[in-house]
Design goal:
The protein has 60 residues and is of the alpha+beta class. The protein is built from three helices and two strands, in the order αααββ. The protein is 35% helix and 13% strand. A hairpin with a 6-residue loop joins strand 1 and strand 2.
């Protein structure tokens, strides 16, 4: 499992964040707040979390 090999700070960050089962659930939760947030798939737990960091668009 990735958690066993991951740096402590990254795993800890995952454990304290709200986890959502789906991307849509995360988006719906984010829509309730004024601060813009974006959902991302967590590599440690497999769930979805929200971040304030805007995702980069893929370069063409």
């Amino acid at each position: 499992m990735l958690m066993a090999k991951a740096p402590f700070k990254r795993v800890y960050s995952c454990t304290i964040k709200k986890r959502f089962k789906t991307k849509n659930a995360a988006k719906n939760h984010a829509a309730k707040y004024e601060t813009p947030t974006w959902p991302y798939r967590c590599e440690f737990c497999g769930g979805w979390h929200l971040t304030k960091k805007k995702p980069e668009r893929p370069k063409k």
